[in-house]
Amino acid sequence: MLKSLHDMIHPTAIVAPSASLGANVKIGPFCTIGPDVVLEDGVELVSHVAVEGRTRIGAGAKLFPFCTVGLEPQDLKYKGEPTETVIGPRTQIREHCSIHRGTVTGTGITRIGADCLLMAVVHVAHDCDIGDGVIVSNNVVMGGHVEIGARAVIGGAAALLQFVRVGAGAMVGGLTGVPSDITPYCFAFGSRAELVGLNMIGLRRRGLDKTQLHHIRAAYRYIFSGPGVFADRVQAARAEYGDNPFVAEMLGFIDTPSRHGLLTNVARASGANED
Question: Fewer CB within 10 Å: C terminus or N terminus of the chain?
Answer without folding.
Answer: N
